[in-house]
Structure formats: C-alpha cells, structure tokens
Amino acid sequence: MSVPLTAEDVRRTTLRVLGEIAPEADLASLKPDVSFRDQLDIDSMDFLNFVIALHEALQVEIPEADYPKLASLNACVEYLLARSAASRRA
Amino acid sequence: MPTLGADMSAGTLVAWKKKPGDHVTRGEVIAEVETDKAAIDVEVFTSGVLEKLLVQPGEKVPVGTVMAIIREEGQPVSVSAAAPLPPPTTGEAPVPPPSPVRAAPPPLPPAVEPGRLKISPSAKQLATQLGVDTASVRGTGPGGAITREDIERAAAEPTPPAESEAGSDRMARMRQAIAAAMARSKREIPHYYLGGMIDMSRAMAWLADENQKRAVTDRLLYGVLLIKAVALALREVPELNAVWKEGQAARSQAIHVGAAISLRGGGLVAPALHDTDRQSLDELMRRFRDLVKRARAGTLRSSELSDPTITVTSLGEQGVETVFGVIYPPQVALVGFGKVVERPWVAQGQVVARPVVTATLSADHRVTDGHRGGLFLAAVDRLLQEPSRL
After folding, report:
1. What Cα–Cα distance (Å) separates residue B322 from each residue in B182, B216, B328, B335?
2. Apex CA B386: angle with CA B382 and CA B388, to 5°?
3. Helix or strand or coil: residue B40?
C-alpha cells in the first residue's frame, strides 16, 4: 500500500505543475489564499491541463464540478488531500 | 519563404531539417523559420527529392523567396545549378520552380559520425582562444571536420543577444507585425459589425453532463462547442469562409477555423484547426489542446498559420462581454465571443435567469452584407441550441 500524501507533497506537486503550466510565473511570491486566476495569466485550457497534471501526478479523480475547489494553493492542498484520503478508504 | 499571415513580410531560416538528396513528402517539416511572432516548422508543399538549398541558416529573406529546389517525382535529374528566383510580388506561398530545375544535385555533405565532434587540435586550440563553442560550429572540412577557418568564421559572427533582450526584441517585433496587419485591415477592409445574445443554457447543461461522464483527460472545453458551431454555420453562409485575393473574394471549399490564442508574455496567433467542420468534438478538442500547447511553445506548422479561412476569438475569460474584432487579412470575417453571463431572459412568457453569451461578427462589406451576416449569427445560435449534434 502506498504512503499517504502529506500536505507538503501536495503543495510541492501543485507548485511544480503550476510552474509547467505558467513558466513565466513567479511562484515564490504566490499568495496561497488568493485565487490562481487573480495572480497568474491562466485560461481554461491552462486550467484543464493543470487538473490533468494533478490527476496524473497524485492519482486523484477530480470531477469537473469540483474545479472551483482548486482555485488557490491552499484550496488545492485541502481538496486534494481530502480526495486522496477518501480514495484510500474506498 | 511561405507567407504565414498578413503580418509577416520576411522570415529568418533557423535550420534545415533535411539535406540535399533526401526524399521529402508533402506535409513533412523541412525547415524551421523564425518570424516576428514565433518559430515555425515549415512544411513542404510537394513530394520529391530535395535537390538544392538556396537559403542558409541565419539568412533573413522576404516572403515568397524560393528557399530550396525539390525535384518532383518523375522529373529528370537536373544538370546545372538554378539561380535563386526573385520573390514574387503577390506574397503567395512558395511554389516549386515553374520548369524542371537544371541543377545537378550537389554532392551530399560528408557524413559526420553522430555524437563525436571532428576537430583538429589546432582548430580546437583556436576555438578556446577565441571563446567559440565548437558544438555550435558547422564543420566544412573532410568528413565534416571543423577547420580553423570554421572557427574564425564562427568567431566573426555576431553574438546572439541575451535571452531577456531577445525576448523583449521579439515582443517588439510581434507588436509591429500585429500593428502592420491590423492597420492594413482597417485601411483596406470596410468592416461591418453585428452582434446578438445567445442563450447558452442548453449548451452549458449538455457540456456539464458530458464532462461528468468523461475522464479528466477526455473532457471538452466550452470553446470547442463555439468553434464547431461557427464551422457548421459557415456551411450555410459559405461566403464568409473566404479570402480576399487580387481584388475579389475567393471562397474556400475547406473550412479551417483560426483559433485566436494568446501567447505568454503578450501577443497572439490564430492558427488553423484544419477541416474544423468535419471533426468530431473529441477530435477537435484533442487538436485544439495540441494547437494551444504548440502555439505557446513556438512549434506551430506553416500550414497552420497560412490556412485559416476565418478567425474565432473568445475573450470571455478576461471578463469581456462583447468583442468588436478586427478582421485578419486576407480573411473576410472574424467571429467573437464574450463572457457567459447570467441575464434575465424571457422564455414562454416568463422572465428567467439564463447563461447568455454575446456573439459578434466582424465582416468585410466588399464580400457580404448585414443580411448574410445576420443569417450566419442566427445559424450559430441555432446550432448551439442542439449541442449533441455538433
């Protein structure tokens, strides 16, 4: 059985994926509670690629209806940890 | 040098992907070219044997310049070198020379053993003295070896600008290119504008339902529905699917929607989704995703920039409600979509909240009038009311 994800795992993965999607972004100054869309120049195609990359990296299913729950870095960590834990219990 | 849009007057050859003697197939990438907007993979327009390269890497040549000679299948092997042809004045895509070339294929460059640099100790020492990176030097000596002359030549070449400087220079050139094309459009094309609101409730509900059933990698974006609806509407009003050429409109049989894609750091391109009307939504989504990725990575193909027959732009994600677009010459129409917003909507005598988008048409009055333009927008609206049939 795989090791449960930690908040730091998710945070690091999220930032890595963001860096691939928006390579020009200064992720060091990213405010964790503020929406990505308010801080980065990303569109719906970028966001879809972001979700696909998170899904592939973390093996977490992300329904489209849950996209608003991935709005910021902190929101991503909270949501993805919960989804990962839920899928491990299932 | 193919014309890759109205905003391109010249291009710089970065590299050849083929060498004389190679067999090339129509559609294959033969060269990489740097334009003011991006690096482009240039596809070959005919199949045959690459006989002669007429432009060297680093050379900037006007659109229309013949860059290479290809001997088509069945043509006799030529016997003497053909002079480079002057660029045509029409700005058309390059075509093979009108008559069989007379040049004997030059001897193939000597093969260089991959992964191993051939350089004499003396040339190597000179490279160190002059600060020349031998990995970037093209050897002209026996067996492709790098000679002292090659090193001296490389040292004399101007040093490329620093990355940030090159980036800002490219941005300035892109703005100039866009400005030139848009100024030409406004100067030459008598635009007219139409707009209308479209109830998107059926399309949005269908999309949400569809995406709920799909794996994340197979989901559709809303923009793909708009692009497909435009493509199908063009079948009903084909005069909008045309280019203005030599004083008249030339309708295109194929429908190649150019999708406006913003580039990171500024600027935009609108490459073609080929045969848009004939692609399923899944295929269109796959192609669109690939196109956006390659547009932003600077690896578009020449046909994608030269082939669009109409442009679709959506600025809804930037909060824009209505787009008043400028037609991209030589096209004769541009369709714009704004943000999907909730608006009071009267349906069956009741005022209800509906997701609504404003669709606009910028069209060339030399080619169509408002009546046909209105029919086109009505067709887009009608098609979006039946999303499962797109």
Report:
1. 19, 30, 18, 11
2. 150
3. strand
Do B259 and B380 share a domain, yes or no? yes
B 178-217 residues with CB < 8 A to A: 208, 211-212, 216-217
Low-confidence ranges of chain B (pLDDT < 50): 79-115
* B292 interfacial to chain A (CB closer than 8 Å): yes
Nearest to B34 by CA among B45, B42, B26: B42
Cβ of residue A80 closer than 8 Å to a chain B Cβ: no
Q: The tokens of B237 are what?
A: 């009003």
Per-residue pLDDT tens digits for B158-193: 555 555 666 677 788 888 888 989 999 999 999 999
Same domain, B200 and B132: no
Q: Is B223 close to A44, i.e. CB distance below 8 A?
A: yes
- CATH number of B286's domain: 3.30.559.10
For residue A14, tell me if it sits in a domain: yes
Task: Give the pLDDT of residue B264.
Answer: 84
**A70 interaction partners in chain B (CB closer than 8 Å):** none
Query: What is the spatial distance between Cα B193 and Cα B14, in angstroms, rounded to a whole number?
Result: 40
Instruction: Tell me if B105 sits within 8 A of B82, measured CB to CB.
Output: no
ipTM over cut 0.90:
no
Q: State the smallest CA–CA distance between residue A8 and chain B in angstroms.
A: 24
Look at residue B101 in the predicted model and tell me its pLDDT.
36
Write out chain A residues lying below 8 Å of B288, CB-based: 45
Q: Does B218 touch chain A (CB under 8 A)?
A: no
Residue B125 structural domain: 121-156
Residue numbers in A near B259 (CB within 8 A): none
B270 in Cβ contact with B260 (< 8 Å): yes
